[in-house]
Design brief:
Radius of gyration: 20 Å
Low-confidence stretches: 1-19
CATH class of the largest domain: Alpha Beta
CATH architecture of the largest domain: 3-Layer(aba) Sandwich
Number of strands: 13
Number of helices: 9
Largest sheet: 5 strands, mixed
Strand content: 25-35%
CATH topology of the largest domain: D-Maltodextrin-Binding Protein, domain 2
CATH superfamily of the largest domain: Periplasmic binding protein-like II
Distance between the termini: 61 Å
Strand order of the largest sheet: 5-1-6-13-7
Number of domains: 2
Order of helices and strands: HEEEEHEHEHEEEHEHEHEEHH
Helix content: 25-40%
Mean pLDDT: 92
Length: 239
């Protein structure tokens, strides 16, 4: 019996060790083309392709976890997953509570989209909650109307709750293009943040080193630029 218990304990320890070798990647799944849920119910988009290649180069086994944007940092800190790949811009405020790898998407423009070219951008402007865009709108003198999802922030313009939506230009580009003239870019693009990085717990220094090394190889061999162009088009900002 003692040998059986010992064997059982060893199996349990081995299983726990194997479980720890799996790196869980947290994403929103609602921010195309960065990340979204496809018809098969799987995470897809630029960050899915990037994250899978990142883990391959870092020689890690990874699995994907989806989480609402407004609690994505707290759930990283509480251990529900090990890394955030969710179109998260590197900012001083976020870097004070979590850590980041080097950026895997360069600093890109944020933009306003509206249903009329002559809207007053000092009025009510919608944005996704807890984003650098929401913070910018609040500081601009306009009234920010925040929503849990990016889709809701766009819908607020269509239903008249807001005069414009402010978000990543790369996110809005397809929405504007597919709106048949209903939506248009207005005002000037705004450069915000230090690019997009993988969010990590500050204690996970070894994982950060592995990810940084893998990202650098993808920049060096041009594969990261190829992924960006594939998902965002030839005119997208690249490294």
């Amino acid at each position: 019996m003692k040998n059986l218990l010992l064997a059982t304990a060893l199996i349990a320890v081995s299983g726990a060790a194997q479980a720890q070798d799996v790196v869980r990647l947290g994403t929103e799944g609602a921010y195309p083309p960065f990340n979204f849920i496809n018809d098969a119910g799987e995470v897809a988009g630029f960050e899915r392709e990037f994250g899978d290649e990142l883990c391959k180069r870092a020689e890690l086994t990874c699995e994907w976890v989806t989480n609402d944007w407004d609690s994505i940092i707290p759930n990283l800190q509480s251990g529900n997953y090990d890394a955030i790949l969710a179109g998260m811009s590197i900012t001083e405020e976020r870097d004070a509570v979590i850590d980041f790898t080097q950026n895997y998407f360069p600093p890109a423009a944020s933009a306003y989209a509206a249903m009329s070219a002559d809207v007053d951008l000092t009025g009510v402007v919608s944005a996704q909650v807890s984003t650098i865009q929401a913070a910018y709108v609040a500081e601009s003198g306009a009234t920010v109307l925040e929503f849990a999802t990016p889709d809701e922030s766009v819908a607020a313009v269509r239903n008249g709750e807001a005069v414009a939506v402010f978000a990543d230009q790369d996110y809005l580009a397809a929405i504007v293009a597919e709106s048949n003239g209903e939506l248009m870019f207005v005002g000037e693009p705004v450069q915000l943040g230090g690019g997009i990085g993988v969010g990590l717990r500050e204690s996970d220094t070894e994982l950060k080193e592995k990810f940084n090394a893998a990202i650098q190889t993808m920049k060096d061999d041009g594969s990261l630029n190829a992924m960006i162009e594939k998902h965002f088009g030839a005119e997208a900002t690249k490294f």
